[in-house]
Every structure is written in C-alpha cells, then in structure tokens.
Amino acid sequence: MADDNFSSLFDLLPIGAYRSMPDGRQLRANAALVKLNGYSSEAEMLLAVNTIGAEWYVEAGRHDEFMRLVQTQSFVSDFISEIYQHNSPKPIWVREHAHAVRDTSGNIAYYEGTVEDISAERAAQQEIATSERRFRAMTEKAQVVTVICTREGIITYASPACQSTLGVEPHGLIGTLIFDWVHPDDLAKGESEFALVVAGTNSGAETVSRFRHSDGSWRHLSAVGNSALADDAVRGVILNFRDVTDARRAEERLTILATIDMLTALKNRSAFEAAAIAELEVVRGTPGRCAALYFIDLDRFKLINDSVGHAIGDRVLREIGRRLNHSAPPRATVGRLGGDEFAMLLPCGDTPSEPELIAAGIVAALSAPMQIGDMAFTVTASVGVCVFPDHADSFELMLRYADLAMLDAKSTRRDAFRVFHSSLAVVAQDRLSLVEELREALLLGQLEVFYQPQVSLVDAELMGLEALVRWRHPTRGLIAPDTFISLAEDVGLISAIGEIVAERAVSDMARWQIAYGRPLTLALNVSAMQLRDATFIEQLSDILRRHDFPAQSLELEITESALVASLDLAPGVLRALHRLGARVVLDDLGVAYSSFAYLKQFQVHGVKLDRGFVDGVPGDATDSAIVRAIISLARSLKLRVVAEGIEHAEQRMYLIDQGCAEGQGFLFSKPLPWASIDALFAAPSHVIGQRVLLLPNR
Ligand code: C2E
Ligand code: MG
Ligand code: MG
How far is the CA of 420 from the centre of ligand 3 (A)? Predict the structure, then answer.
C-alpha cells in the first residue's frame, strides 16, 4: 500500500483497510472501513476520528492488547473483537489483521491493517453451535431412543440412548427384528400398531410396550412411530421410544396404595366393594350358587380408643385385621370398611348352616385375648350376615342388610352374630324414629323404674332390689332397656337416663328401707359412658344426700366391658365411689373380658354371674365349669357372688351347692313396678308374684 498505484485497489477491497500513525492518527481508511465504521466518506471519518483508541472496543483492554501484539511481534492476525460503530448503538464483531512498518533505523513508521465485519458469520457459527448442542442433548443425553426399521421391522439404525435404556449398544440392535425385543404379552398390540405406522394410518398417539433390557428386566417404553418409507434419505419407519418405566412403577404403586387400607393391609372400602361386586357377578352367572356378606363391627371399640389412646387402638385394629385375614377361608374377600368395621364376602358352600358357622368362627377368632405391649385386651365383635340372592341381589343392599343384622346382634348382647331377616329392615327405620321419641320420653317422664328382688338363695330372704329401667311408650307399650340403652349410649342420652333412674330409685328405696326396717341394698346399673361423665359422682352424692339414703346401701353394677373400656378413668372413678361409701359390683361377668386381674385392681365388692352361664347349669358342662370356676375364684378373693337369671329350682340348688349365696331371677320374682313393691312392704305376708319371699319379722 506504500505504492500509490494500489490506491484504487485499496478502495476496491471488500474488507476495511487502513494506515495509521504510531500515535493513533489515521492516515487512510478505505471505503469498506468507512462504511464499516458508519461514516459516509473517508474525509468525514478522518476528520471525526483523530485516533483509533480504546473507546473503539467494547471490551476494555482490547486496544492495549492489540498494541502490545503489534509492537512486540510487529503483526497481529485474526484478532477478533466487538467494536462500536459511529452511527449505531449496536456493536459489531470484527476480525483484524495488522502489521507495523518500520523505518531503516527500526522504529515504527506506521501501521497498516484490515478490519472485517464478521457479525453475520459469528451469528451463524453460534447458531450452529447451539443447534449442535441441542441435537447432541436430544439424541445422546436424552432418554429418547430413535430406531429406524424396514417395513418388516428389521432395525437399520438405533440411537446411542439404546445403551442406557436397554443396556445394548446400537450395533447390538441393528439387524435384529424389533419384535424380538418386545414382551410376549405386548406383542400383538405392538405388531398391529407397527402395521398402522407402515400403512401411515396410525393415530400418532403413544403406545406403551415392555422391552427386554440386557439385565433381563422389562422396561416400559412409550413409542411414537412415523413412516419415512417414501423419504429417500430415510427409507424406513422411524420409531421414537421414551422410557416410562419409573412413571409406570410409580403409577402401579399408587394404584396399590389406593386400594389398600394402610393400617391393616387389607383391601380398603372401595377395593373391597369392587372385588365383592366382581365376585357377585361370577356367583350370579352360576345357577344355584350363593354368597354371603359378613359385616363385622367391633364392640365398643370407640371406648378402647378413647381410653388407651389411638396408637394402641390402631394396633388392636391391625391385630384384628390380621386375625380376620388369617381365619378367612381361601376363597374369601376380606376388607376394612373404615373405623372398626370389617367385611368379608364368601361364596356359599353346600351346607345351609354354613353362614352361621363362619360367623361364629369369626367371632371366636377375633375375641381371643390379645397382648399389646404390656396390656392384655379382649375385643369382641358383632357380625351381621346377608346372603345373596336370598336376602338381597345387589352388593349395596347386601351391605345395608348385613349392617342391620350386625346392629341387631349388637343390641341383643347375647348373640354375637345375626343372619339377616326381613323384619330387620323395619327395625332399622324404627331405630331412627326411636331416637327422636326417646328424647321426648325423657322430657315427658315416660321412663319408669322396675325393681327385681335379689335374695339369699338358701332361704329366699330379700337382700336388695336391682333397679331396671323401662320405657312406657304411648303406643308401643312397655319397652325393655335392651332396645334403647345402647341407642341412648350412642346418641349421648345415657347420662340423663341414669340420673332419672338414680333419682327415682333412691327416693323409692329410702322409703322402703324405713318400711322394711332393715337395710336393703339398691343395685343401680351404670353405663361406661356415665363413668366418663365428669359430673357423675357429684350428681350421685347429691341424690343420696337429698333422700338421706346411706351410700353403704348403694351398689353400682358396672358391666365388665364398660369398666375395661374406661380403664384409664376407672381408678379415679372407683376411688371416688369408695370415698362416697358406695360399692361396685361387676355385672355380666364372664361375657366379655373375664380377667380377674381387674377384680383385684379395682377393689370391686362383688360380681354378678351372667344369665348366659346360669342358663346352662347344671346341664351344660362348659357353662357349669365356668360357673364353678367363677364362684370359687370370687370366693377366694372374698367377693360377693350374685347369680342372675335363675329360673329353675335345679339352677338354684346347683348354685347353692357351689357356694353361691345370692341370686335373682324369675324363680323368685320378675322385675316389679314400684307399686307392687309398695304393696309388698305394706302387706303382712310378703308375696311377690307366685312365690313367697321369706321376710324376717319386723
Ligand atoms: P342386667 O343388669 O344384667 O339386668 C338383668 C336383666 O335380666 C334384666 O333385664 C332382667 O329383667 C333380666 N332377668 C332377671 N331375671 C331373669 C330371669 O330369670 N330370666 C330372664 N330371662 N331374664 C331375667 P332388663 O330389665 O331387660 O335389662 C336389661 C339390661 O339393661 C340390664 O342387664 C342392664 O344392663 C341394662 N339396664 C337396665 N336398666 C338400666 C339402667 O337404668 N341404666 C343402665 N345403664 N342400664 C340398664
Ligand atoms: Mg344389672
Ligand atoms: Mg347382668
């Protein structure tokens, strides 16, 4: 460029070129450089730019770097920087070459160089780099396996991801038939989908099939296929596979979780329902077959839960679930419906009495004592049975009827299970209206107290009276407590009933004691719910005080199950009763828990032998053995024993022989209304019912 003959060539150059002085002053700039810098002419540019300096470069230090290179090496090549243009706020990328021209003494005379706008090139390069990165990520790092096969399914290409997905290198797949990798059960579906892809008529939706991994496991791959048979560059079917195994497994786990009762690992309500409905469909399709639904409900489980806590309650439920599952026949479907409700569906066998046998078996299996930590429990269950198609022809109805049968079994106390009977459907409706009527009955004073004499068995001397509540219903007549006591407990009316009975009975007894001239015991029945009522003791002592009735003549009959269910509160309540001077007797002994440990622990005064056992003496060997055992144990603990439900002279004799001193029952007297007792004490000879009670001289 020293030669001016090159001047025209200088301006023709498509890239910028210049000559400048060591102090930075510009001597020449060609047309391309003028344009690159955003000026309209060389003159304008040279006028405006005295020096090309640091401010030209976007990046600080770039100019120093350039100068250092050109001065030390005398040349700079491929020097790439971002620079500012005169007429635009947006910098551009340039590539510079330059060299220093020295004079004869070796000093730098001037610089010459070229500046090339490479913005477009750079953008393109960057685009390529990004797209390559994207491509790599897609085909290699991503879990998508791309496979190309022939229309017959022979693999001609496999992307590297097949290694991580199936444990096979691409060359291990190429040449094989794609279907050889598919799970046999998914093959038919896979082949037909492939045929649709080949024909170009597939929906484009993903289909999931299992593919064999080299480790022998099956991976769930979701595939989308596209035919590129007509595309010369491909000439095949492109299949893209996504590994969805983990998602599948999670889904499967969720499905299992959604059908399982977490506490007992039995089927939960909805899964039980689904399985039972399916089972019923099978039975329905087989003429002459039937199936029984067993509805199982634990007795007073709520009290256990409330008294020993939910953690223990949960363990009780788990143990019940385990027992139920264990004792269920092989073809049974077992589930937990929620809370303390369980259910079992079982196709019937050939014996008509089978449902009863199975129900009794469930009751027995569940009521065996269980040990949880250092606590011993006996949990009883009530079972209701409904048979398809005899009683109901849909699962829904069966469940309702089995529930009703269960409630009926519960309410009668004596049988732990009940097979549905159509009269029960009526009973259920009754129960509902009964609650409303019971509330009213309390307000209207429809409750009455009957009294059943308790006598000395040897001479039938009157020892005391047990107060038993009755409901004189305006249209139904006299209703026995079994019909409404548990109902009252369920709906929270029992404390009110207890108070009414105590008030009436204490006031009657205060009167009769005076008439009789010697102490008579008043036995009052107390429900577990009352023990949990904070005002119970206070209420009772208030009643005693108002009627001037000695607490020493009061005996509270608490059922064994009630006491155990309130174990946490029992010591406190019993101590308070002791302080008051009242005695506690365990009612219905032998029915539920029969642990004599409680008798000692709670300092009870006596026990009442349940009617169920007295019924069986002396004929039934088991009942007799139990009665003998209870009497002898009670005697050794110096507890009073009162036998209930004595109806026959042989029972009375047997009990006397075993050493039981007192009892009550129809043999001596039915429960009597107060007026009859009034009359009894007023008459010179005391006749109760058909029997003469031997009352001592007054
Ligand atoms: P329980 O305390 O075991 O009362 C004895 C039950 O046996 C009474 O039934 C009585 O009428 C009946 N009974 C007595 N002797 C014989 C007999 O020789 N043969 C037969 N078959 N039965 C006999 P009742 O009056 O129907 O009372 C049933 C249960 O209701 C009572 O059983 C008691 O647990 C409860 N109950 C009664 N009154 C009250 C009350 O005021 N409060 C509470 N919480 N419960 C009560
Ligand atoms: Mg009683
Ligand atoms: Mg009893």
Answer: 26
Token pair recorded at residue 583: 């005695």
Sign of the Cα pseudo-torsion (544, 568, 485, 456, in order): negative
348 phi and psi angles, rounded to 5 deg = -75, 150
Nearest to 395 by CA among 340, 333, 352: 333
CA distances from 675 to 508, 570, 698 (A): 10, 36, 21
Token reading at 398:
């069966």
Beta strands of 200-340 (E only): which ranges? 207-212, 218-228, 236-243, 291-298, 333-338
pLDDT tens, 510-537?
999 888 877 899 999 998 778 878 889 9
- Three-point CA angle 12, 15, 17, nearest 5°: 80
pLDDT at site 595: 57
Strand order in the sheet with 88-102: 26-29, 16-20, 108-117, 88-102, 75-85
How high is the pLDDT of residue 435? 85
Q: What is the mean pLDDT of residues 100-107?
A: 90
Query: Bridge-partner residues for 573, per DSSP?
Result: none
**CA dist., res. 156 & res. 417, Å (int):** 70
How far, in Å, from the CA of 695 to the mean position of ligand 2?
A: 23
Tell me the sheet residues that pair with 449: 469
CB 617 within 8 A of CB 624: yes
**113 forms bridges with which residues in the sheet?**
18, 98
Q: Which ligand sits nearest to residue 671's alpha carbon?
A: 1
Q: Three-state secondary structure along 403-445?
A: HHHHHHHHHHCCCCEEECCHHHHHHHHHHHHHHHHHHHHHHHC
Which protein residues are within 6 Å of ligand 1, measured from CB? 452, 468-469, 480-482, 485, 498, 501, 525-527, 557, 587-588, 611, 644-647, 664-666, 671
Kindly report the protein residue whose alpha carbon is nearest to atom 33 of ligand 1.
525
pLDDT in tens, 252-296: 887 777 888 989 999 999 999 999 999 999 999 888 889 999 999
